Every structure is written in structure tokens, then in C-alpha cells.
Amino acid sequence: MKNLFLCVLVLIISGNLFSQTVEQVKSDNLNYYWGEGSGTTLEKANNEALSMLISQISTSVESYFEILKQESGSQYKEKVYSVVRTYSSSTLKNTERILINDEPNATVFRYVKRSELFKIFAERREKIIDFAENAGIAADKLQIADALKYYYWAFMLLKSHPDCNSIKFTNGELMAVWLPAQLNLLFAGITVTLGELTADEGFATQTLNITHKGLPIANYDYSYWDGKNYSNTISAKDGLGFVEFSETKPAVKDVKLKTEYMFENEASTDKELFDVMQKLDPVPFPKSYFVAKPKNLKQIADILQSPENKLVDDKTIPSEAKSNSAFTQVTDPTSYMKAVNQLKDAIRKANYESAKPLFTDNGFEIFTKLVKYGKARILADKELLFLQQGDEVFCRAIPMSFNFANNKQFVEELVLNFDVDKKISNLSFALGDKAISDITAKTIWPEKVKAQLINFMEDYKTAYALKRLDYIERIFSDDALIIVGSLLKIKLGDMNQYKDNKILKYNHYTKQEYLKRLKYAFNSKEYINLQFEDNEIRKSGKSPETYGIQIRQSFYSSNYSDGGYLFLLIDFVNPDLPVIHVRTWQPEKNADGSIYGLNDFN
To answer: What's this model's pTM, rounded to 2 decimal places?
Structure first.
């Protein structure tokens, strides 16, 4: 009886202390925002409490949203409430919560100190700055699609911040003015001209030559007006894009283009960003529209091939090869060119089986996967390069387009490998000009090593695009060390020891665990497209045939995209089948600007 009495007394005392805490918060409106909700479930009660809390916060900060006030007019208060609510999916859930009653008559109380309010918005401010910095880095590398995307995303998040008119970039510029100016500067630097027109059965394709301030762009997304509507989004690469017409002899004088800069599909991978973009009206940029006009083709070629404009020129490879036995230019490529033309004809007519005699068994298997990668089409003919290394001949590079059901098209260049019997034994997507340039610029490496590295990276990129688990399984050693990093945000606080309130979490996987995750990813995505740049290659001091590659990787897929830094430790003892001993991926560089590299595993 005595114990029962004590338990009841404790419950009474704790209940009184508990109710006093809630009442104290409610009565102290000068120092607290609060909300209370009820429902049959805790989730419903919690959401109702959050809604009330958000209403109080939005009323308090609504006067700061000058951009929204100008855009929304009489709907201003509703728009502010909607925008402040976008914080509920992340930061606001870190506000204090008190459970007053449990289910089925749940009551939840949420509150936050007014003095802590600035911390609620601090995380979004950091994301705005991060996006803008990423945009500047991309612009410097002529990755115009990425630069536009990050500038626009930064601008949309800025509009959702109560300090939108006072936040400055690291250069001291007010971002509310500076961000749209950067977008317009990028638009102003883009020039698009019409290239060669080729006719196929029932349609015609015309190439586009796309530059930014006279230099071929690394990437650029756009759609074009076909007379009735805008096309699917197309991703141009290394200055090459295309348009298609539903007739074989179109009377083309010019083509209207619409530059993609919102990237709403990619934004869906960031719940906070996607929520903001759904709540706010999109911002139109009239300068994002272009008219591509015909231009003298010789003049275009001269511009793109001039030394100061060409990031990398495949034609320089034979001259380098003359002093090294690793490469020789095929002096009479007639038989190889005949096979290439037959292959092009099979692709254009979608009669893939007719091309089977051109391939080895393994080559035709890869070819079958490639034409299933997307609706494959050959773009306009270009001068091809035939290079010999040992018993193999490489054909570089056939421009192609790949069309996917989710309104996405890519431009890729196809590399063919011919074996000693002049059969196509392998196909791969070429690295971008910048990535090749980074490798070929390593003058201290023998040409043979450069060729092996380029071949390997192109096969690696293509294996992920074509979802070749069999190949990926072969190139990873059974005891491979596989590390994948993910970025975590942590709650703000005065004692926070982590820079920018972010920490990197690293997960270690065995080969089989990694392949299992990869198989799931392959099955859940219509397509995967990898782009590489910024290579840093070092030779191991312990093994003369082992190299470490640090590379910037952009990953695009139908339901997810990201960018980060890839490190591969590769053994080239068997050049025909290199082996990966270490693979690491991290979304950001370390605090000191480094990433995983050879020194960490050598």
C-alpha cells in the first residue's frame, strides 16, 4: 500500500511540473513560439501542433519576405505561411516536443525559443551559399547545365528565406540581385548554330554546335520547338547537340531553343528543395530562349578546332603516337570504315540483327545492351579516327543520341574496338573532352599507360550505363575495399564542433554487398549516365602496375542525380582485365580540400 501511495504521489508531482512547463511556455509569448495539436494518432496531433507553430512563426517573419510580397500581392500571407512550412520537413522537426496525451486521444505540444529562430533558417542559408559556390565551379569548367541548375536552385531557396534581401555571397554581393544576374550572364554567353543535316527513313537530324563565349560547352540541357510543342529535354555534350524533324527534307532556316535551368526532376532528390520549388512560382528568364541559325560549316569547324578553343583534339593523338610504339594511326582504314558504315546503317534502320556478323559474341552482346540503353540514333557523320594499339584498332568516335521514356535524351560518342580479325569486340561511351585532356596532359606517363587509363574509364562508365553487373563483378577484386560517403546535417548549436554543421558518414561494403546494392539501383532506374572530369592520376610506389585515379563524377539517372569524388586503386598487371582493389566515393572534399587518394591506401 505504501509503495502504491508513493507511485501515485510521484505521478501527481510530475504531472504538475509537466503542466506548469506547458503553461509557462504558453504564457510567455515574448520568448516562445508554440503550437498544440490533438488527434487520434501521434502523427496527426504532431502535424497539427507544427501547423500552429508555423503559423505563429510566419506571422512573425512575414514582413521580411519582400520578394514574396512583391510577387504575391493579396496572397502574400498565405504564400509566406506556405514557404515557412517547407522548413517543417527538416529543421522545424528539431524544435522541442512534449507529449501531453498518448493515443488514441493524443495531444502534442511543440515550441521553440524566439532567440533560437535564426538557427532555424541558418541551415538553409548555408545550402544557398553551397549551391552558388557549386555553380561558379561548374561555370569555370563550361558545365553550363550544372551552373544554371545550381544558380537557379540557390535563387529559389533564397526566396524562401526571411533574410532574402540581406544575404550576401562570399564576394560581398547581395544574392537577391547577384544570382539572377549570374543566370543572365550565362545565358548571354551561349551561342548555338545549326550544323549538318542528315536524312533517315521518315525523319531528319540536324546537329547543333553549342559554345559559351566561343568555347565548346561541356554540358548543356535544352529543348527545341518542333512546330507544335517543345521536345523532350536533350543533354548536349562537348559542344554537340541535335534537333530532329519528322520529315526527311525539312525547310530549316532557324530553330527555337529553350534552355533548361530549373531541373525540377533532379530537384526531387532533395526533399527540402523540391518542397520549396513546389510552393513558389517558377521564375521565368526570357534570355533562356535562343534561335539557332545556319552558319557556314567550315567557319564552325575552324572555331571549334582552333587551339585556344578546343579542350582536346583527338587528331593530336596520332602526332603524339609517332614517337611512341603504343599508338599508330591506321594508314588504310577502308575495311574498318566499311564495317562502321554497315553498323550505322543497321542502327538507322533498327535492324540490329543484320549487324551481328560485324561482332564477336561478346561484342554483339554489349551492342544489344547499348541499343536498348535508349532509342539509339546516329547523329551527323564526322571524321572518324582509327588508332592501332597492339592487335586492336580503335574507332573514335561516332556521335549518337539516346532517347528515354521519361523525356530525357543524351548525346554520347561511341568508341569501337576491333580485334585482330577486324571484328568489333567492344563498344564504349567516350569520355568527355575535359576528362581525356586531363589524362593526356600527363606528359610523364607513357602513351601506353594513358591509353589503358582512357580505355578503362570508358569501359567503367559504359558498364554502369548499360547495367553490366557481370563486367563490374569481374573488375572488382574479391577482397575489394569499397567505401561510400554520405553527407549528414546535424542540429545547430553553440558547441557544434563540425564545420558548416555537416559531417561525412562513411559506410564500408564488401564486394557482394556493393553488388547487391548496385543491382537494386540498376533495377530501379530507367537509365544511368556517368560523366567524368578533373582526373588526378598517380602511380603506386609499391607496385609499378598499380595506379590511383581521383576523379570528379557526375551521376544522372531517371530518379536520382548527384555529384562527388571517386577514387579507384587499379591494378593493370593484366591490361585486358584491370582489377579494382579500392573504390571510394564522397559527396564533398574534406575540410582541407583533399579527397581519398593513393596515400591513404598505398
So the answer is: 0.76
